[in-house]
Amino acid sequence: MTEPSTAMAGMDSSAFVTSAEHQSGGPGKPRSLWSDAWRDLRRRPLFIIASAVIVLLVVIALFPGLFSSVDPNHRDLDFSRQPPSGDAWFGYDLQGQDVYARVIYGTRWTLLVGVSASVLTVLVGAFLGILGGYFGGWVDGLVSRIGEIFFGLPFVLGAIVILNLVRNARIDGALPIVLAVVVSIAVLSWPVAMRIMRSAAIAAKQQDYVKAARALGARPGRIIFRHLLPNCLAPVLVYGTIALGAFIGVEATLSFLGIGLRDPAVSWGVMISDARNYVRVAPHMLLFPAGFLTVTVLAFVMLGDAVREALDPKLR
């Protein structure tokens, strides 16, 4: 092997210290997995684009009045199925309702279903998965068998059964209907999050820091929440981000089938369902809500892929 160059040999050792401090964020402050992931994410154009789209959608959902002053439920049959114009950018639907206003106000309900279903799915799945992965034995066997039962249920069929039970109970109001859709999605989706968390917990409990905590007499609750959970959270969060976009599409599918959201709730799925019989004569009724739905799902999927690649060193 050749000897180091003169320039390398003449460098002051402080240069290496400065470089190390820069890489670690300062003396004695090594960067965590999350800080490394954030530095990597900020350099990804897809992450920036997806984040910008999602932030815009969140603003629309929180403050729809900033984007439209028209009542989304106002009906005037004189404007039925009229195409886009200066007065109505997206045209009117069959009932003479402003499609643009309904798309804007429908963002709130669509995101509410997606976010709520994703959060509930991750909470239930992660809780059961980390219990099964840490304790093993009969606990792991019980959790795994229950998960396999729900995992084997056909999603659409299971959702139809659950939501038809709610419909037969004659529950009225937008929020109860939204809650029923969220619960049905979470009940049929939590086994995936459980399996991801279970695998991460099984791998993490073999690490030295968990063995050291157990040897020092730490209780299982402290080990799970202080040691296992922070180190098992990344893959579940990635799944939750990607699933959020998928659940938005699921809500549209259920609404299209007539078992999801319905009046007085306004969502993109409801609008697509209302427009399915008028695609040829009034395509604008379908194209605009479907376009917003597609962009939203793609944004969350791209965000989840970017986060997954940033958190997995093998994919960098």
Automatic annotation (TrEMBL):
It holds the Pfam family OppC_N. Belongs to the binding-protein-dependent transport system permease family. It is found in: Cell membrane. This is Oligopeptide transport system permease protein. Residues 107-304 form the ABC transmembrane type-1 domain. The chain crosses the membrane at residues 46-67, 109-137, 149-167, 173-193, 236-261, 281-307. Gene3D superfamilies: MetI-like. InterPro entries: BP-dependent_transpt_permease, MetI-like, MetI-like_sf, OppC_N. Keywords: Cell membrane, Membrane, Transmembrane, Transmembrane helix, Transport. GO terms for biological process: transmembrane transport. Coiled coil: none annotated. It is a multi-pass membrane protein. One of its GO terms (cellular component) is plasma membrane.
